[in-house]
Amino acid sequence: MRFSGLRVLKEGLTGNKGWTPHWRDPQPKVEYDIVIIGGGGHGLSTAYYLAKEHGLTNVAVLEKGYIGGGNVGRNTTIVRANYFLQGNSEFYSHSLKLWEGLEEDLNYNVMHSQRGIINLFHSDGQRDAAARRGNMMISQGDDAILLGRDELKEMVPYLNFDDLRFPLYGGLYHPRGGTARHDAVAWGFARGADQRGVDLVQNCEVTGIDVENGVVRGVQTSRGPIRAKKVAMVAAGRSGQVAAMAGMRLPIESHVLQAFVTEGLKPCIDHVVTFGMGHFYISQSDKGGLVFGGDLDFYASYAARGNLPTVETVMEAGMALMPMIGKAKVLRSWGGIMDMSPDGSPIIDRTDIEGLYLNCGWNYGGFKAVPGSGNVFAHLLATDRYHENATGFRLDRFRTGRGIIDEEGKGSQHNLH
Amino acid sequence: MRISCPFCGERDRREFYYRGAAVDLERPLPGAGADVWDAFVYLRENPAGETRELWYHEGGCGAWIVVTRNTVTHEILRTEHASEARS
């Protein structure tokens, strides 16, 4: 079934009776070429690109819950390529280019909206840093515009320009950045992978990883054993438990990150605005809700909910930056389980076990990476070579100290990012 | 989340700084080798359930505290001075 304007019109006139489920609900087979553990955004896009670009369709995605029920449905939907360091820069640039063709590619409306992102700065030093970052983005082939205070005032007049503690000097504007509809991204990739023959197996929890003489043989699951030539671990916040089944310990701590959405309002915030000094960022969804978040709670957690002190901090930062949102009522909040790596950058690599691959460490930035991560991981799984835009995400960079990608310049240590 | 400091009693979480897994209590010798140091600095058990962590009572008595906590429920099961936990 293909989506088109004509089809929507026809279905609308005939009672919407012709729509069919977007993907099958198959029984797992006894053996696959590749088993992907984790049916989140990254796992689904990995499966999609394995099928589309490498012709590998004897693939299963094993999801312990349901498609779209994890972090891919629990984020703030921001898509951007405004990274500074080599290693990150070319990867996120690659991912953004995939985003830009994603809807045609998937034949699915993921509501990708390139409304632009503005990172605010508040001092001469920060302006210099923003200019340097902008130049790096431009030299990568992406876009960046340095806004002064007057230009900022014209674009986002509702900010608090009288703040004395963090005066608004300007912003780094990334016009191609924006947002997308997170659920639709999961559904679009799921449908695309399924149409090409990938089995999406839901309610199927992996309970063991079978390794013989250093070679992976398959997995044990709540729906029986499944043999596999290759196994890919793409379990985000749960990566630690999945890797433990293969006897591995990862350089990952799982933390809780909270986000919030208000009741629906008329359009008022046209861009994504980030206020680094207050650890606050905000955009407005197409339904009208203000979607915003802040920093981690800063303790290890699998609770998928946070504590009130962080809620208070986020609300205070929001009020300091844009007092106009004070009358909006917060409708709901949620917490996601973030796989935090020591340097704040991801891991896409082989492991010491032959046939076992790892994709994790997305910290709080996994959503924008969904197409890119699946694309380069599929390349690694299919060819056993690193994709040219993902050569830096090595697992051993922590042990060797070579190739640390510390985007924030905070140091390579847990609990700093 | 409220944390019971062995010295000050039960206090708001905001008074405490979070260090992470309580691995610092068993710091390896300088010459222990790259793998041992890798395990100490970076590799984490990262359990979903009971875990031992180091918290610092920054806004209180300044003690380092070993907190036994459940990462799924946020329940705090036990707290003790780091010096006692180590011995």
Structure characterization notes:
The complex is a heterodimer of chains A (417) and B (87). By secondary structure, chain A is α/β, with parallel strands linked by helices. Chain A folds into two domains: 5-78 and 182-251 and 343-400, 3-Layer(bba) Sandwich (FAD/NAD(P)-binding domain), CATH 3.50.50.60; 114-177 and 253-340, D-Amino Acid Oxidase, subunit A, domain 2 (D-Amino Acid Oxidase, Chain A, domain 2), CATH 3.30.9.10. In chain A, 28% of the residues lie in helices and 26% in strands. Chain A has eleven helices and 18 strands. In chain A, strand 10 and strand 11 (226-233) form a beta hairpin. Chain A is globular, with a radius of gyration of 21 Å. Chain B has helices spanning 34-41, 82-86, and strands at residues 2-5, 9-12, 17-21, 50-56, 64-70, 76-81. The N and C termini of chain B lie far apart (28 Å). Chain B is mostly beta strands and 87 residues long. In chain B, the strands form two sheets. In chain B, strands 3-4-5-6 form a four-stranded antiparallel beta sheet. A two-stranded antiparallel sheet of chain B has the order 1-2. The model of chain B has no long low-confidence stretch (mean pLDDT 95). Chain B has one domain: Folate-binding superfamily (Folate-binding fold), CATH 3.30.2270.10. In chain B, strand 1 and strand 2 (9-12) form a beta hairpin. Chain B is globular. The A-B interface holds A 238, 240-241, 244, 249-254, 298-303, 307, 309, 342, 398-400, 413-415 and B 1, 12-14, 18-21, 34-35, 38-39, 41-48, 51, 53, 69, 71-74.
